[in-house]
Known about the structure:
InterPro entries: DUF6504. By secondary structure, this protein is mostly beta strands.
Amino acid sequence: MVxxxxxxxxVRVGEARPEQFLWRGRLYRVTEVVDHWQxxxxxxxxxxxxxxxxxxxxxxxxxxSASRGLSSAPGVYDLGVDGDPxxxxxxxxxxxxx
Length: 98
């Protein structure tokens, strides 16, 4: 089952891919990048006071397998970034899968 989340998260990027992310005060370690793609954004909802020429039309998405530690089972998470992937603050946790 896919759950829509869309919450801001902090992501640590290495070698042009997410390696860890912090969500709700918990650190998750990425164990595998399952897929990577671009998807269209709802740009008409995301202007936030910016002019339309400054709003990205597409978002980079990484589907990753990640876990909170050695004893927790990994989950599947969709991490998205609208701007520079190396910026820790522009990331969103878009979806989780059970």
